[in-house]
Specification:
Largest sheet: 6 strands, antiparallel
Shape: globular
Structural class: mainly beta
Number of helices: 0
Mean pLDDT: 91
Helix content: under 10%
Length: 78
C-alpha cells in the first residue's frame, strides 16, 4: 500500500476531526481538554490497515493529549 505520509511525520489537519474517532489520552474534565480542530499540527502515530492515519497530538510540554483517526485527504505535511 502506498501512503503519502510516514510514521512520526508532522501533519496539519485540513478539517475538524470526527468526534467519534477522537480519543483523549487522559481522563480530564471537558473544560480541561484541549479541543482538536482544523489547522492543528500533530504527528503520525500509526498507518492503519485501511489506509487511514492515527494522528497523535501533544501539549506544549510534550505530553500526549489526544489521538485522532484521519483520512489521507484530510491531512497535509507540516
Amino acid at each position: 500500500m502506498q501512503t503519502k505520509f510516514k510514521r512520526h511525520q508532522k501533519v496539519r489537519l485540513l478539517k475538524n476531526p470526527d468526534p467519534e474517532y477522537m480519543e483523549y489520552h487522559n481522563e480530564l474534565n471537558d473544560e480541561e481538554q484541549i479541543p482538536i480542530i482544523k489547522g492543528m499540527i500533530g504527528e503520525i502515530n500509526l498507518v492503519l490497515p485501511t489506509g487511514d492515519y492515527h494522528v497523535k497530538f501533544k501539549d506544549e510540554h510534550g505530553h500526549n493529549i489526544a489521538f485522532v483517526k484521519m483520512a489521507e485527504e484530510d491531512l497535509e505535511a507540516a
